[in-house]
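Figure S4 source data
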Amino acid sequence: MRNPPRLAACVLAGSLLFGPVASQPAPAPDRSQRPAIGASAALASAPLTLATALELAWQRAVSARESHAQRRRADAEQAAATSLWGAPPALELSHRNDRWNDNTGARETEVGVAVPLWLPGQRAARGAAAQGAIAQADAATQAARLRLAGELREAAWAVAAWQAEAVQAEALTVSHRQLADDVERRVRAGDLARADALVARAELLAAQGQHAEVLQQLQSARIRWALLTGMTADPALEGQAGPEDAGAPLAATHPELELARQNTVHARQQLDLMRQSRREPPELTLGVRQDVPGRAEASRNSVVVGLRLPFGTDDRNRPLEAAALSELDIAQTAEQRLRERLEGELATARDALRSAQVQAAVESDRARLLRERATLIDKSFRAGETSLPELLRALAAAAQADSASNRQAVTLGLARARLQQALGLLP
């Protein structure tokens, strides 16, 4: 009883640390020495902003390779559209003789090159389709980055949530340890019964077990974060909330919506290209021919110019046009459904943010009141006016309220992040 009471301060530790926990997670003591996964140690020790984490995760993502491959294919299509011919040229060789017939020495040899030509309007249509493929590849890249940013946001706030729980669990463990030590001293002094010491020690063990479980969950969240980014540094969420949403409608520049729009444009361009390619490309043949009429006659050379004009029939065109029309219809329907889904997700994110703001304020006030009550009961217990079970109940209620307040503050930060995700904003 001669030592100044420190129990109330320990009970309040979780709430005092809560503000920095929600916005700037507290690092573990030895984490600064952990090696990076495929990166420098300097980056491994410093907290990662979401923007930096997105760049690191994009370098590791499979979707980045898919986007690069799609862009390379689009660039190849554009290069093919600028070609001088509509299809690859072909070399033609032919030779005739009468060895197995009259055997008079007559023979004919022809060498030529067949060059497919562009149909009227076909080259421009293929160039437009190639440009559409490039725009589609760029939109797909941005959409893939946005989806990856969503995974990073969820993983980062999961780390922040378990860090808040770890801080609260550690504070609760410290308070129960000091309470158990205080009860032991009072038992030895004859002020309390041995049963009170056993209860206090049991509560300490429960708090230690809870702390160990929270640390394990925190480690799992950090592993998921490291798998995404390749780094072991914790996310730095300070200043990551972004501007508050003013209820603006869904932006036309949303990456997912832009990708759907580009899919529709490209499907329409593919339909135009099919309609400009209703027949196989005509072939212009240029060559030389050598004729030898017989053994006693001199050879004669000539130039060969030929033109091959394939016909376009319904048997060929109708299946191709039906497929192109189906692709366009599917793309248009997918774009409309996606717009509706994104508008619904945006409305849900706004409602969740408003609800989280109200609940965060309520839980903060509730935690403040229960901490004040626990402080008063602690003073009463030290004065011998309150029993230990009542103090333990007050401490448990205050600890649960602090945990709820911490969780709700993290939920509020996650709700802001999900709203930014619904708006299509990258970190």
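Figure S5 source data
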Amino acid sequence: MAALGVGLIGTGYMGKCHALAWNNVASVFGDVERPRLVTLAEINPELARQKAQEFGFSRSTANWRDLLSDPDIDAISVTTPNAFHPEMAIAALEAGKHVWCEKPMAPAFQDAVKMRDAARTSGKTAAMGYNYIQNPVVRHMRRLIDEGAIGTVYHVRAEMDEDFMADATAPFYWKSEASSGYGALDDFAVHPLSLLYALFGHVESAIADMVKPYATRPLASGGTRAVETHDLASVLLKLEGDISAVLMANRSAWGRKGRIAIQIFGSTGSILYDQERMNEFQLYTTDGRPEEQGFRTVLTAPHHKPYDRFIPAPGHGLGFNDLKVIECRELLAAIGGQNAHIIDFENGLRIERSIHAMARSFAEQRWVTVNEVHE
């Protein structure tokens, strides 16, 4: 596989995460050419120069459109706030670049449709940044489900909780603006939805409730501003295969730092997983004598591929950024025409469609089928 020329838009948390992945993918996997980190784009030119040097990019620019006409760039990472994803991703695809875009696709559904259409027309690889599905634990959970280790799955509960918006005195910022989307649903709950998709398939119907824990937030300049998004969502779902599911997301949950809890209940057992303990899962099966039945904890190890590419011994553990390296390797496989474990813009749009179905359900106070959200 020929070395890819990479451009990066954005230097925040996820920008750095993408840069680490591009830098490390060849060293970790050893079966791809080391990507060429060509140009980093950041609106502040001084910050762009600083971060280009830190992240290992040859050049920097204050104008992201400079990346579009650069023949040295084959793929562009889009790691900007949600509202900028459509314009940047579509322009990159139209310029003949592969795209790796952070979630969600876009606040407005029709903009997400345009992103999907641009990917179809371009023929280029367009992948979403759903790195939690890359966890070797999650991959093994899918294997157990497919092998019937817990029988027929009939119910799933998915929860995502963090406390980065729990402080009522924290100032108003863009995640509380309507232009950023619905709030916990699309900025946040898309991650457990990506896991539900990877394990079972897409959402078919939903009924949702959303809550604003704080009606207003203080402004840095003084006074307050009304919060326009909902930081908490609770949803009943039907998944493919007529599986009952519950989804709960809370961006204001004091004490929760990175919790994505999945509980899977089957006819002969259960599987439990929590992202805050991302290197283990719990398995309960009804085989054997009742006297010895109980949940057992399984730690990740080299036989949970591709854990072995990082660490040769069990129980030492992977981290968030490692999942991004795995995702980067899958992206390179997709670009190379191989089967890849990614969520492309086609399936990304189906996740977006389910989010908008949930929002419509809340607005109309009824069950909504995902197919009611039309392109």
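The mean pLDDT is 96. The first strand starts at residue 5 and ends at 9.
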